[in-house]
Amino acid sequence: MDSTEVEIPSYFSCPISMQLMTDPVTLCTGATYDRQSVEKWMFTLGNNTCPLTKQPLHNIELTPNHTLRRLIQHWCVLNSSSGVQRISTPRPPLDADRLNKLLLDMASFQVKALKKLRSLAGESESNRRLIASSAAPAALISVIESHSTENDEVGCCYDAAVACEEALGILYSLPLLDETLDSIATGKCLASLASVLKRGTSNARFHAAMLLQTLTRKGLERLVMNANGELIEGLLELLTEEVCHQATVAALEMLTAITSNSQHSRINAIEAGAVSVLIESLPDQTPEKKCNCERMLCLLNVLCGCAEGRAAVADHAMGIPAVSKKIMRVSDLATEKAFRILWLLCKLSLSKRVVDEMLQTGVVTKLCLLLHSECTVKTKRKVNEMFKLHRTYWKSASCFPSLNFQE
User: What CA–CA distance (Å, rounded) separates 387 from 390?
Assistant: First the structure.
């Protein structure tokens, strides 16, 4: 008999998930829920009321209901012949004393202690919140900062790399406080993250990218100030190697954030080959990958805000064709950014070679289509401006005489 056919007593079911409770805990209101469900209700969704009674939660302490758990386990045993599996006894939540001992152990048995801490962080949201509010994040950042893959013996290098990977995995799983994020955004930590992005394992690089994405979304000014060429190069390697989709998104967001707010970082990115990486990646961004295509064009648009970026696009053999092909083929945002890149080239980096290439690669035809599309009035005005500016060169285009723009 399948366990789904056995009726679960109502007082054994979690009021949130309506499933059999495996780790019942009681709130200050007296209502009992399964730990995983109520932690999600409070910590992930940010609710501060009791789901059942709607009373405000004056504290968020979760008290294990051992009596109810034993009754549930006994019921499971009685119904084992019907296919009901006995629930295991949950591990006790992490407490401050146990955590502090584990942090002390890191001095002598770093990798072992880190693996244990990561296991505890994976057990519950309560554990993660305790770890996040303790001295653990500072210790984890110290592990990352001490990571080096150069000038070490092979054994030490391996241990340092494993320790760094574990520390990054733990930090990524935690609900990080603002002061922890500030510490990660320091120059020393960012330099270590840049090293991980270049030489770390796939897992370490992924977690480093995710941490950087968190910093970017928090809008930390220190991140922009401390970003250097090494970090930019590491992010570009992520784009080139495509570690995973999430890492690609994180790299694009990070690069856009730091280059949008720093001319120095913009130049660093261009000198590191960012324009070539983006242009050569654009053809692979199909309509199904429109979000990444939009991000790439947004970043390319930022880089074209300076003369060096525009020159890099104009000088790349695929530059103008790759950008123009995204007009009216991906999304309105992609069309807008692709057009703006071409407009910047026409307006601020004028040369006969660029103008001729736009004619030869079909850009003029795309601009004609834009005039007859539902694009914004501002875009149509800029298209007209481009036509008036270059009509001497483009009037030979078959579509040009039929255009209706103001002289």
Answer: 5
Hey, what are 237's tokens?
């390697």
User: What is the residue type of 91?
Assistant: R
- Burial of 213-249, coded b for 16+ CB within 10 Å and e otherwise, reads bbbbeeebebbbebbeebbbbbbbbbbeeebeeebbb
Instruction: Round to whole Å and give the CA distance between 287 and 272.
Output: 28
Q: Which two tokens stand for residue 96?
A: 């401050």
The answer to whether the Cα torsion of 325, 328, 334, 340 is positive or negative is positive
Domain ranges for the chain, please list them: 3-82, 101-272
Fold for the domain defined by 101-272: Leucine-rich Repeat Variant (1.25.10)
In order of 15, 300, 316, 318, 367, the CA distances from 354 in angstroms are 66, 17, 11, 12, 15
Q: What is the mean pLDDT of each run of 10 residues along the chain (407 residues)?
A: 70 94 94 93 90 91 93 93 87 90 89 94 91 95 76 56 93 92 88 90 92 84 79 91 86 91 90 95 75 93 94 92 88 89 83 80 81 81 81 66 48
Arch. (CATH architecture) of 3-82: 2-Layer Sandwich (3.30)
Is the pTM of the predicted complex or chain greater than 0.85? no
Return d(Cα 357, Cα 244) in angstroms, integer.
Answer: 35
C-beta separation of 313 from 279 below 8 A: yes
Q: pLDDT by residue (tens digit) across 76-106?
A: 999 988 888 888 888 888 899 999 999 998 8
Q: Are 157 and 193 in contact (CB under 8 A)?
A: no
